[in-house]
Amino acid sequence: MIDECARRTIVIDLCLAERDSLRRYVTSILGRDSHAVEDVVQETLLRAWQLAERIDWADRPVRMWLFRVARNLVIDQHRRDGRAVPVGLDTPDFETDRQPDEVQQVIDRRVLVEVLRRLSPAHREVVARIHLLGSPGEEVAAVLGVPLGTVKSRAHNAVRQIRAELTRGDWAGAAA
Question: How far is 169 from 165, CA to CA, in rounded Å?
Fold first, then answer.
């Protein structure tokens, strides 16, 4: 049995041997942003070091594990950056002091009601509970006494039908 210090040393050596290939891999994903690449590489190696005693490295290819962790870190970073304000723009550029157009709200509500009326009662019930009331699918299934798969199917089909109707524009009479 290898003691903890020796185990960490082995893991560090394995990871450092893959450092250059890891850096090339992350660069292929992120491009030439050397700071972002280095952040991902360092975070990946840190996680490997932190998990050294919990992962059985003998049966796990270190390179594949490092690449997967790096890929996941890049995805997480991309998701975080997607919610960030672009450089050069201030948050006031995104804020509006305008109140929503009341006439447009009335029209939107009438269109929504008309499109919902065109759904079958079972589909309308599921859409209303999930999308308008925010109930989880499991709760809707329990209340309606149907399997969860049925709730998911009805929700999917109803949303697909709503999108089709809104795209088609058959609801134009609802605004009149």
Answer: 6
